[in-house]
Amino acid sequence: QVQLAESGGGLVQAGGSLRLSCAVSGRIFSSYAMGWFRQAPGKERELVAVISSEGTTYYGDSVKGRFTTSRDNAKNTLYLQMSDLKPEDTGVYYCAGRLFANYAYNPTQYDYWGQGTQVTVSS
Predict the structure, then answer these.
(1) Which regions of the chain are under pLDDT 70?
(2) Shortest CA distance to 9 belongs to which of 84, 107, 78, 80?
(3) What are the distances in angstroms from CA 10 to CA 30, 58, 92, 97?
(4) What is the pLDDT of residue 100?
(5) Cβ pair 49, 61 in contact under 8 A
(6) Longest Cα pair distance anywhere in the chain, in angstroms?
(7) Bridge-partner residues for 101, per DSSP?
(8) What 3-state class would DSSP assign to 96?
(9) Is the four-CA dihedral 36, 48, 85, 39 of positive or negative sign?
(10) Contact 8, 18 (CB under 8 A)
């Protein structure tokens, strides 16, 4: 049984920073591609950042240059460093894992999900 648990969300002013963490338990974390997705009220879940098992990353256009994802395989933890936050970054942020080494862009191609953590950016 694989379990993912996000932490680090909260309320921040525009221009501020937050770091999200996702602790993964269960199977071999280092073999998985991982991803961050977010969902705002009334909107579809969208890709924020994904990372392959070897550390190759891809970012959604709206966060390029502001967000960085990384993984610590020794700690079974995925991170999302968010900087220069904007009100449009507000939403529930989900960590996801995929039973393949390569990442995917579509959230339906991820097999495991965390419960989500709320990020609210005030203007």
Answers:
(1) none
(2) 80
(3) 28, 24, 10, 23
(4) 94
(5) no
(6) 40
(7) none
(8) strand
(9) negative
(10) yes
For 2-41, strand residue ranges (E) read 3-7, 10-13, 18-25, 33-39
* pLDDT for residue 1: 81
Q: What is the pLDDT of residue 19?
A: 98
Residue 117 belongs to what H/E stretch?
A: strand 117-122
Q: Does residue 17 sit in helix, strand or coil? A: coil
User: Which pLDDT does position 105 carry in this prediction?
Assistant: 97
**Who contacts 10 (Cβ-Cβ below 8 Å, separation ≥6)?**
18, 118, 119, 120
Element (H, E) at 49: strand 46-51
CA torsion sign, 90 to 61 to 100 to 43? Answer: positive
Predicted pLDDT at 27: 75
